Amino acid sequence: MLPYWLVVIGASAGGTKPLMDLVANLPADFPAAVCLTTHIPPYTPSHLPEILGRSGLLPVVHAQDGEPIQPGRIYCAVPDHHLLLQDECLGVKKGPKENRVRPAVDTLFRSAAYSAGPGVIGVVLSGMLDDGTSGLWTIKQFGGIAIVQDPEDAEHSSMPASALNQVEVDHTVRGQDLGDLLVQLVAEPLPYAAGVDIDPATQHRVKTEVKIALSDHAFRKGVMEFGKVTPQTCPECGGVLVQIKEGGFTRYRCHTGHAYTGDTLLVGVTEHVEETLWRTMRTMEEAVMLLENTGREFAQAGDQRLAEAYKRKARDLEERSVLIFRDVTENERLSVDTLKNEVQHRNP
């Protein structure tokens, strides 16, 4: 456990503004370390340290693998790498994606809870879907403090709303008030880790999941023992998925290490349906071209009956590919948000 408070923050779409407000309200002598994970595309550089550095007094940097963590500094995740806490150092690792992203909020939160226990303050800000819910639940299990941006104040309410629905949250605040709240909280003495009663099975699983995020081999780490094997397969790699129960919600992890909440799995599965339909249509069109080319060769050789048979089969396949194309264009990518929106429009 660290000798000072650790604040871990997760944000996605709409998270930059509350992060800027937060940094602007933190004093230069802020006594805690701060780690930030935002959903960053892997193909673009992140300028978050420069943006936040201009907003406040604390130094803001990209985390470096193996770097000792220090109070009074803000560490940002780098693109395409998870940010984790390893005892008193930072880990910047390319472990399996979680919730279809890397870096993932749940990965940071889970590692912070395991390493720093009740000395962790977890914050979920604006974002879509539900990354951060599982990690915030874990922080609470290890004795930490849970804070969520008021969904009414968030540009995108899904992430904070999910955390509020599934986690016993300690504070719900507007983005502009978060800095003042954190200053108050870190002024309190650190709680004792010995006073936290953690379920041994949860502690073992969290330890294993942190190791998986650090790029350890998931199958050899016993991921198949986390829960019952499901009929679903991983949209990322096709591996078997194991069901993990946390409080009142369910997560999934495959034997190669990819992890999903129920909502992100639904998004991934429906996206995979569209990809499969496109591949099917491509294969059928390739078959049409092959039948047409072969039919022309038979016609040139003087076998008109066989040439017509090939031409007829080509037409049949082409008509069927039109139906596949219609399925592709009508396919929906589903999530909790899209289904809620559909229900609201049907029952105003």
TrEMBL record:
<keyword id="KW-0145">Chemotaxis</keyword>
<dbReference type="GO" id="GO:0005737">
    <property type="term" value="C:cytoplasm"/>
</dbReference>
<feature type="active site">
    <location>
        <position position="39"/>
    </location>
</feature>
<protein>
    <recommendedName>
        <fullName>protein-glutamate methylesterase</fullName>
        <ecNumber>3.1.1.61</ecNumber>
    </recommendedName>
</protein>
<dbReference type="InterPro" id="IPR011247">
    <property type="entry name" value="Chemotax_prot-Glu_Me-esterase"/>
</dbReference>
<keyword id="KW-0378">Hydrolase</keyword>
<feature type="domain" description="CheB-type methylesterase">
    <location>
        <begin position="3"/>
        <end position="189"/>
    </location>
</feature>
<dbReference type="GO" id="GO:0000156">
    <property type="term" value="F:phosphorelay response regulator activity"/>
</dbReference>
<dbReference type="GO" id="GO:0006935">
    <property type="term" value="P:chemotaxis"/>
</dbReference>
<dbReference type="Pfam" id="PF01339">
    <property type="entry name" value="CheB_methylest"/>
</dbReference>
<dbReference type="InterPro" id="IPR035909">
    <property type="entry name" value="CheB_C"/>
</dbReference>
<dbReference type="GO" id="GO:0008984">
    <property type="term" value="F:protein-glutamate methylesterase activity"/>
</dbReference>
<keyword id="KW-0614">Plasmid</keyword>
<feature type="active site">
    <location>
        <position position="131"/>
    </location>
</feature>
<feature type="active site">
    <location>
        <position position="12"/>
    </location>
</feature>
<dbReference type="InterPro" id="IPR000673">
    <property type="entry name" value="Sig_transdc_resp-reg_Me-estase"/>
</dbReference>
